[in-house]
Specification:
Number of helices: 0
Number of strands: 11
Distance between the termini: 11 Å
Structural class: mainly beta
Radius of gyration: 14 Å
Shape: globular
Helix content: under 10%
Strand content: over 45%
Order of helices and strands: EEEEEEEEEEE
Amino acid sequence: TGIPTPVPMALVSGTSAGTDPLTVTNEGNAPAYPVFTITGPGTLFTITNSTNGQQMVIDTTLTAGQQIIIDIRNKTIEVSGTSILDSASGEWIVLDPGDNTFSLSVDSGNTSDTQMQTEFYDTYLGI
């Protein structure tokens, strides 16, 4: 078989609810290390994997169209190519094998344009 391609999943945060849970599935048998892309506007972003209890908070403000790129495997967090690692607290969120339910919460300033995308490879041990 070939190398699996990334699985993009959009997670959109609306202006009223602030969070929209989304379930994504890691078809592998080992934790997957996603790349999260959060598009602004908004202030104080919280990503939660309610399946395993992991949570990460990014204390920054994004203008409309600005993006935070969170690379879990490489442990980097950037906005416009500049590290904002010191604005983060919590855990590096992985996708456990099977279903994982994510939510994005934005403290203030979010609109219907505020969203998060999750990209990952199904991850296998022993292959």
